[in-house]
Design goal:
Helix content is 34%, strand content 40%. Strands 1, 2, 3, 4, 5, 6 and 7 form a 7-stranded mixed sheet that branches. With 135 residues, it is an alpha+beta fold. It comes from Pseudonocardia ammonioxydans.
């Protein structure tokens, strides 16, 4: 029998797989209606807290700048307790501007009833700014 933590880690794993595919509607379907997504730092248009609609706008914009239409997320290590799942993650995508985005993150997911209810995203903000924002 699986524990709550095992089920929540599986939910996060599946969310990252869907996210890596770039189907924005499928990504949003795996989130609660009141989900929030927070990104560390002061990256214009990316950092701060977004509700589900704001997250959709951000993900759609980022996906549109990539050659594949998505950022691949590869989970490296999980720690779970109750509804919280912490994941060390690596990303990779190629941008239409010729740049490569390859970042390391620490995500803290909150999972509620099998859906993503909240995310805190800690990342290398300088790398993200250099790849997505700097002209």
């Amino acid at each position: 029998m699986s524990t709550l933590e095992d089920r929540n880690k599986q939910t996060v794993t599946e969310f990252m797989e869907v996210f890596s595919g770039g189907d924005v509607d499928a990504i949003l379907d795996r989130m609660t209606d009141d989900a929030t997504w927070w990104v560390a730092g002061n990256i214009p248009g990316i950092s701060g807290t977004k509700d589900k609609a704001g997250f959709k706008d951000m993900v759609s914009g980022i996906a549109g700048s990539t050659t594949s239409g998505a950022i691949r997320l590869t989970p490296l290590a999980f720690t779970a307790e109750g509804e919280r799942v912490a994941v060390e993650t690596e990303s990779y995508t190629e941008l239409k501007n010729g740049r490569i985005y390859n970042n390391i993150y620490h995500f803290l997911f909150t999972v509620r009833d099998g859906k993503i209810a909240g995310v805190k995203e800690y990342l290398d903000t300088e790398h993200t700014t250099a790849v997505f924002v700097t002209p």
